[in-house]
């Protein structure tokens, strides 16, 4: 057993001292990939010129082994598993719409007003129950979502909202720049339950057993991604 321990320690020392090189296969959610990962690729390449990133964007649940991915970046609760995860950021959710849509359809002031609006939902399981709200009396409820369009990922929902297709419930981390620029407007904030969604980088292995190319990528994300 001592021999095996010495071998493990030697491998960890080599991994820690070796210049990171090779390919990191990253499977990222679409919004995070487009707005936060891809813009930072040049900086990562400059810091680690011998590490190449192989990036795939989608919002479905993936198996790291089946997808042959080193890292999966996902938003929302994580199911129990043997995988390791590093939290990158947490953010609250908000209902948003374009100024053009609100000018055309009116700004909802109460939860009852939602009956007269188009709600942009998601067509994957985690979001199919509806939107959570809290009433003026403090009661929590789920509002079913229906409208002329649904989205398969957060970026599509954002694009639909920007196009004036209806109200969407998205993370402020995702649409914060749109809100600041006036392209989207938050509505129904008094009824916002204040729920938080986390973005995590999920990976296999930890500590000295993590390849240096993957470790530096995870460290880079944790350092660079800030709300």
Structure description:
- The protein is α/β, with parallel strands linked by helices and 227 residues long.
- It folds into two domains: 2-90 and 198-224, D-Maltodextrin-Binding Protein, domain 2; 91-196, D-Maltodextrin-Binding Protein, domain 2, CATH 3.40.190.
- It has eight helices and eleven strands.
- It has helices at 2-17, 30-37, 41-47, 64-67, 99-105, 154-162, 172-181, 212-224; strands at 22-28, 51-57, 71-75, 84-97, 119-122, 131-134, 140-143, 150-151, 167-171, 185-187, 196-203.
- The strands form two sheets. Strands 1, 2, 3, 4, 5, 8, 9, 10 and 11 form a nine-stranded mixed sheet that branches.
- It starts with a helix and ends with a helix.
Keywords:
11 strands; elongated; D-Maltodextrin-Binding Protein, domain 2; nine-stranded mixed sheet; 227 residues; two-stranded antiparallel sheet
């Amino acid at each position: 057993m001592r021999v095996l321990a010495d071998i493990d320690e030697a491998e960890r020392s080599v991994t820690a001292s070796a210049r990171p090189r090779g390919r990191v296969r990253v499977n990222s959610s679409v919004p995070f990939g487009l707005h936060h990962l891809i813009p930072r690729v040049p900086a990562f390449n400059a810091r680690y010129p011998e590490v190449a990133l192989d990036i795939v964007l989608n919002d479905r649940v993936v198996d790291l082994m089946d997808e042959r991915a080193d890292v999966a970046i996902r938003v929302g609760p994580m199911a129990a598993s043997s995988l390791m995860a590093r939290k990158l950021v947490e953010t609250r959710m908000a209902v948003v719409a374009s100024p053009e849509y609100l000018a055309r359809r009116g700004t909802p002031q109460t939860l009852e007003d939602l009956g007269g609006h188009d709600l942009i939902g998601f067509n994957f399981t985690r979001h199919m129950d509806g939107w959570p709200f809290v009433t003026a009396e403090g009661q929590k409820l789920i509002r079913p979502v229906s409208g002329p369009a649904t989205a398969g990922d957060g970026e599509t929902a954002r694009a639909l909202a920007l196009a004036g297709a209806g109200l969407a419930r998205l993370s402020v981390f995702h649409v914060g720049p749109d809100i600041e620029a006036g392209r989207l407007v938050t509505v129904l904030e008094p009824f916002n339950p204040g729920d938080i969604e986390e973005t995590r980088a999920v990976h296999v292995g930890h500590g000295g057993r993590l390849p240096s190319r993957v470790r530096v990528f995870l460290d880079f994300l944790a350092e660079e991604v800030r709300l």
